[in-house]
Amino acid sequence: MPISSDMHQTFCAHFRTSKKSTDPKLLISISSLQMNLTERRNAIFLSPTISIFILIIISLAPYSTLSIRFPDQISEIPKEPSNRPLKTVIFALGSFWRSEAVFGCLDGVVRTTAGYAGGSKLNPEYRSLGDHAESVQIEYDPRSISFRQLLEVFWTSHDSRQVFGQGPDVGNQYRSIIFTNGTEEYSLAAQSKEREQTRSKMSVVTTQIQQLGTFYPAEPEHQKFELKRNPFLLQLIGGNLSAEELERSSLAAKLNGYAAELCPPRMQRHIDAKINDILRKGWPILREV
Ligand SMILES: *[C@@H]1O[C@H](CO)[C@@H](O)[C@H](O)[C@H]1NC(C)=O
Ligand SMILES: *[C@@H]1O[C@H](CO)[C@@H](O)[C@H](O)[C@H]1NC(C)=O
């Protein structure tokens, strides 16, 4: 299940080079920023004074004041948060831990949920998911990102030609699927698959296009998995978020992508800068990005 770090690097490189900004100078400056950040992470872990400072702040603040209200919107441009009509799309492209991270950081993506789809078994679970595929449900604002753009990210974020698995993960649960709702989405998906196939005739694109059926959210421990294994980032957003907050939060979705280094370069740099700023000021809470 876990993606090895080599594999992960390859995916990241693939993801980044597939984006528009491939200026080597830019990439170098991103990696130096990230190195800088890694040093800072280490510094904060290693420095007892800072750790104690953070612990004191966290323990002094009663949980009621610490419970953070996440804004519904992720962009810094003010919008009406509540009555924006969001759309939903579901993709399967290998491990749902990684899939959630791939889409969570995109501008216009409001919420992500890891889950099971594409099979017939009722109430699948991680250890017995039957004929379902690990999937990610993406809630997005169609005024900021389109189904077509999400399809682009889908294709560039996994190997749709790999048979019976994805990366090091072997099995039918890692198959590649685009779930469509209605004829318009179906034809966009079918066209994009044809384009993908014409890129190389040497191997067959295995991706299935399926009519959207029931999506079963995965168990809480599988939600925002990449973020959860980064105690530093969890601490930055206030320590102990409830499972529900982690699932609903746009900030958690973004940082989940950031933790996996799967954000588009511009967003990755933006979050780096925010975090560096917070560390400089010594105040350990990140409220929005
Ligand atoms: C499918 O599309 C219909 C019509 O556009 C919409 O009302 C419905 O909410 C969509 N279903 C999902 C799960 O997105
Ligand atoms: C986090 O909160 C939950 C309940 O909200 C509690 O059960 C758990 O022990 C807490 N974890 C830590 C590390 O404080």
Automatic annotation (TrEMBL):
Membrane-crossing segments per the record: 43-63
EC number, UniProt record: 1.8.4.11
Any GO BP annotation: cellular response to oxidative stress
InterPro entries hit by this protein: Met_Sox_Rdtase_MsrA_dom (IPR002569), Met_Sox_Rdtase_MsrA_sf (IPR036509), MsrA_MetSO_reductase (IPR050162)
One Gene Ontology cellular component annotation held by this UniProt entry: cytoplasm
Enzyme class, spelled out: oxidoreductase
Name of the featured protein: Peptide methionine sulfoxide reductase A5
Organism: Olea europaea subsp. europaea
